[in-house]
Amino acid sequence: MRICIIYHSETGNTRHVAQHIASVIPDSRLVEVTDRAQHMALTRFLAQCKDARGENKTEIEPSHLNVREYDLLVFGSPVWAFKPTPAIHSIIDVLENCEKKRAVAFVTCGGRPGGSREVFKKWIEARGMNFAGFTSVNEKDIEDAAANAELITLVKSAVPKLD
Ligand SMILES: Cc1cc2nc3c(=O)[nH]c(=O)nc-3n(C[C@H](O)[C@H](O)[C@H](O)COP(=O)(O)O)c2cc1C
């Protein structure tokens, strides 16, 4: 396997896009990261925004991931408070053997990805990976052929040997 698609998704949009990538990119593996933080329902939205804004980390499952066998890593996250989520931050932080790998990132959002590209780039480069691109998909467009085509093109272009 050459491509590992690592994503976090609370309500399914990012999972949907990640599964689409996996369905059209040969030789890819999906890894879903879950956030084990327990927030009270009433204050969950505010707590999630606060944690994302602070670029906090959280307890996740899986708690570590060895990516030695992959040529390309694809990270997917929802946008929370204009940033990727604590869960995707956490998995990037605990990746094993990610140094010098190429990595691309995508977010799904309600329409305002804010600083997500820059934050992803910072986290990816902090772990010694090479940031090779970013795209944002509006949650309204997750079924849209053009929006998906842009993302697939990005992933394929990051691995030049794929057709
Ligand atoms: C806590 C929280 C904060 C959010 N903040 C933003 C935001 O800043 N900008 C935006 O465009 N969408 C925002 N959204 C919408 C989500 O990014 C969007 O619905 C995304 O597709 C959800 O992905 P998921 O279904 O994979 O969890 C937010 C949603 C939540 C729950």
What's the number of structural domains?
1
- Output the CATH homologous superfamily: Flavodoxin domain
What order do the helices and strands follow?
EHEHEEEHEEHEH
What topology, given as strand order, has the largest sheet? Answer: 3-2-1-5-7-8
| Structure class | alpha/beta
- CATH architecture classification name: 3-Layer(aba) Sandwich
How many strands, which pairing sense, and closed or not: the largest β-sheet? 6 strands, mixed
How would you characterize this protein structure?
It is a single chain. 34% of the residues lie in helices and 27% in strands. It contains five helices and eight strands. The protein has helices at residues 13-24, 44-53, 86-94, 116-126, 145-158, and strands spanning 3-8, 28-35, 60-61, 65-66, 72-78, 95-96, 102-109, 130-138. It has a six-stranded mixed beta sheet with strand order 3-2-1-5-7-8, sandwiched between helices. A two-stranded parallel ribbon has the order 4-6. The protein is globular. The mean pLDDT is 95. The structure holds flavin mononucleotide.
Quick overview:
This protein is an alpha/beta fold and 163 residues long. It has helices at 13-24, 44-53, 86-94, 116-126, 145-158; strands spanning 3-8, 28-35, 60-61, 65-66, 72-78, 95-96, 102-109, 130-138. The protein has one domain: 3-Layer(aba) Sandwich (Rossmann fold).
